[in-house]
Amino acid sequence: MTAHEIDYHIYGEEMQFVEIELDPQEAVVAEAGSFMMMDEGIKMDTIFGDGSNQDKGVLGKLFSAGKRLLTGESLFMTAFLNEYQGKRKVSFASPYPGKIIPIDLTEFNGKFICQKDAFLCAAKGVTVGIEFSRKLGRGLFGGEGFIMQKLEGDGMAFVHAGGTMAMKELAAGETLKVDTGCIVGFTQTVDYNIEFVGGIKNTIFGGEGLFFATLRGPGKVFIQSLPFSRLAGRVLAAAPRGGGSDKGEGSLLGGLGNLLDGDNRF
Description:
Blueprint: E1 7-11, E2 17-22, E3 27-30, E4 35-38, E5 42-48, H1 57-70, E6 76-82, E7 88-93, E8 98-104, E9 111-114, E10 119-123, E11 127-132, H2 136-141, E12 147-152, E13 156-162, E14 165-170, E15 175-178, E16 183-187, E17 191-196, H3 200-205, E18 211-216, E19 219-224, H4 228-238, H5 255-260
Antiparallel strand pairs: 1-2, 2-7, 3-6, 3-10, 4-7, 5-6, 8-13, 9-12, 9-16, 10-13, 11-12, 14-19, 15-18, 16-19, 17-18
């Protein structure tokens, strides 16, 4: 194996975190901001890109980091190396309510494609690259732009899905239609495109967007019930406006709503 072989355990239900056990000189790389806790004896180091090109000189490092810029991610990732003589543990938390999905890349022929903000962490040696869309419709209207992330190698990687995760295994030629934001990732054998919803009423009054994704098998598809964009939209819609005054959910009730629920502030 070129990637470090790591053991792990996922804890929790709605707000999960993954605990990774590192043998001496084993390492894991993670997105900035996902770190939760670690044992003494683990060295934390900021690296360019995913660390897979650290032995290829300056140009290799710059290329690895530059790929991450195209996906909207930071130039840097954080590596956690066990310098202790025994086993040590490091944990990473999901960024919002949902599920952490372990991806054994050896079971997916060394490659898994995911949305650009789904990646959480991976064994040192896994390449976090970019997957260009070859289709114009997918690039313009796919919700993720022309570029998605691809995870390559023979190690373990961990991605995050918002809400509840569903895994669908598609047979050859079988098609699944999905909201573009609900896609977490899929295997490299799945054909992914964008389709127009169609119909004047659907377009104007449907409230579900103008496009959905069509995923055609064979292969596995991972779907999330709560994309972060949907969660953020609901939070923003419910946020107080006009200097922080609380109008209550359902502005038609206004102060009457606050009175009924026991809040007497007007």
